[in-house]
Amino acid sequence: MGTLFVAGLNHRTAPVAAREQLALEADKLREILTDVFATGVLSEVMILATCNRVEVYGVADAPGEARARAFRHLCQQRGVELSGIEPMLYTKTDAEAVQHAFRVASSLDSMILGEPQILGQVKEAFATAQSCQTVGPTLHGLWTKAFAVAKKVRTETDVARHAVSVSFAAVELARKIFGGLEGRAVLLVGAGEMGELAARHLVEQGAFPIYVASRTWSRAQHLARALAGTAVPFADLEATMATVDIVVTSAGAPEPIIRRDAVQRVMQLRRSRPLFFVDIAVPRDVEAGVNELENVFRYDIDDLKQVVDANLREREREAQRAEAMIRNEVERFAAGRRDREVVPTIVSLRERIESIRQAEVAKALSRMPDASPETRQTLEALSNAIVNKILHVPITKLRESSRSGHGGSWTAFVHELFGLRRDEP
Amino acid sequence: MLFTLALIAYVLATGLALTYLIQREEGLYRLATAATMAGWVLQTIALVARTVEAGRPPFWSFPEAVSVSVWAAVLLELWAERQYRIKALGAFVLPVVVVLSISKTVARPDIEAIAPALHNVWITVHVVLALLGIAAFVLNFAGGIMYLLQERQLKARRPGAFYYRLPSLEALDRLTFRALTLGFPFLTVGLIIGALWAGRFDPLIASSAVAWVIYAFTLAGRAVAGWRGRRAAYFAILGFAALVLTLGAGFLMPGPHGS
């Protein structure tokens, strides 16, 4: 059984200039996988190449040599000097490699903590390696477990939960105020790109209807069509505000468009239903004092960034919990792997002794043709008891040896001692 | 003994629920729920045992009645937590539960069960309705506090622990309002029966009438002027303060509610 290892570079060890040099298309990736596998240095191999990492996962007797082979192929393929990227490479083996794989799949090693794409990318890389038939039992076991761990991290921690972009932070805030967004009316003021993006996110969450106001009537109409909304004249801003729940502004006028006294009048018409202003414009479109009014919440671009920062800190807190979960899973995975190491030996040992026992019992019985059923039974029981008593200690010792990490030498010894055949995995 | 065990479980649940609010560890939430349920079961057994032992309903003395209202409040909390999916609810209801549970230790030691001469079906109805009303107003109060905390976070534009833990303002406002509409009819009818039955002035009736006026005002404000959110939350706290005064009066003053 070879050593499991991962070797590669990521956004922490290599600048984007180096990462983009190694970027691979799918069919090139297949070619490299097949070529590297054909060298026979690795018994299993998979390559994960995204814009933030290029990593080789493999099983080899000599991981150092395997790493050199794999990256030489990669560099040749892309026309890059291996010596240039050599210092950026890291290598992890055994339990550390398992931990790395679990962390990558769970998005704890991502540039943006908890970003959801990486799991799909890993699954794709695994499928590619499978289709090239370079995956064996070790990598199969590793990734099946890694996908399960990633799912567990996602559902049991909030590491991927809170918004890390300004426009999604606005949507999340709207939910904290209104609960669900279904049927919440939105007014978009101005035709800025960020405002449109925020409005789109709101629409995706079920916000309806959408009103669009802009100083230029044609632009309002154009944007209204794009958002399946209604254009309203700029002069009707105040009247429209009285009917909507969320106002997104990105007009970028030199002076605030929405003044405190106007909002105060609007709030009286609204019978204190809450009103949420998302002001993405710079300079700002909504007067700051508006936030002091009862049931009015006003967030400008800096406020939203502050929320994003808090969310990122929240993700980091959750990541610590996820790391603890992963350490646990690595432990269990390693234990299972070690058990697998000695189980075949235990099975063949038992089979070996059992066949001797059966042969000897048959021999003895053939010499006693008149033996009563009781005698036969006694003979079976006696031989079984002897076999079990003798095997008890060796089997216990073998299991213990696997737990203490010496399974390899023990199994070899037992094979030698009992003359067992070695089944190659 | 059983009552003490139940109280210990409630204190434990309170500690766990408050820690959950800060630590945000799911395991703590499950433990807090388990402790709450254990406390409630223990209290149920204790109440049944007392009923069997005394051969009468377990709420014919004022401290006993408070104990039953705590029982109802915990049941309501466990239900609302699931119904409204507000995992933080326990952290706000349980402290009130513990304070109410402990409060009977400050009661006049000479308080005894209602004299047999006063036994009739009306007093039972009066007490039961008042108790259910109080349980609902505990929830109303907790909802109001939570609303104010979440609103402050949203106004301050700096998300903290409450922003992440507490549900939307809309959900909190709905919880507060539902609890009010649940408690108000009970309080109204309970109060009318109590007043008719007493037939005279009583500090307890006076102070619960104050609470009734506050709650009535909140409902009217919502119907007529659309008061909701922060204003409704303030009134929920004010109304509950009046109810607590009422309970204090019941514990400390002589009169039909005392002896």
Give a verbal description of the structure:
The complex is a heterodimer of chains A (425) and B (259). Chain A is of the alpha/beta class and 425 residues long. Chain A folds into three domains: 3-156, Beta Polymerase, domain 2, CATH 3.30.460.30; 166-302, Rossmann fold, CATH 3.40.50; 342-425, no CATH class. Helices cover 58% and strands 12% of the residues of chain A. Chain A has helices spanning 16-21, 26-38, 63-78, 82-85, 94-105, 117-131, 137-156, 166-178, 193-204, 217-226, 237-241, 260-269, 301-366, 373-403, 407-418; strands spanning 3-10, 42-50, 53-60, 90-93, 186-189, 210-213, 230-231, 246-249, 275-279, 296-300. In chain A, strands 7-6-5-8-9-10 form a six-stranded parallel sheet. In chain A, α5 crosses α7 and α7 (137-156) packs across α13 (301-366). Chain A is elongated, with a radius of gyration of 33 Å. Helices cover 80% and strands 0% of the residues of chain B. With 259 residues, chain B is mainly alpha-helical. Chain B has helices at residues 2-23, 26-54, 62-83, 89-103, 121-156, 161-165, 169-198, 203-225, 229-252. Chain B contains nine helices and no strands. In chain B, α3 runs antiparallel to α4 (89-103), α3 (62-83) packs across α5 and α8 (203-225) packs antiparallel against α9 (229-252). The mean pLDDT of chain B is 85. Chain B has one domain (2-106, 114-252). The chains are: A alpha/beta (425), B mainly alpha (259). Chains A and B meet through α8 and α13 of A and α5, α7 and α9 of B.
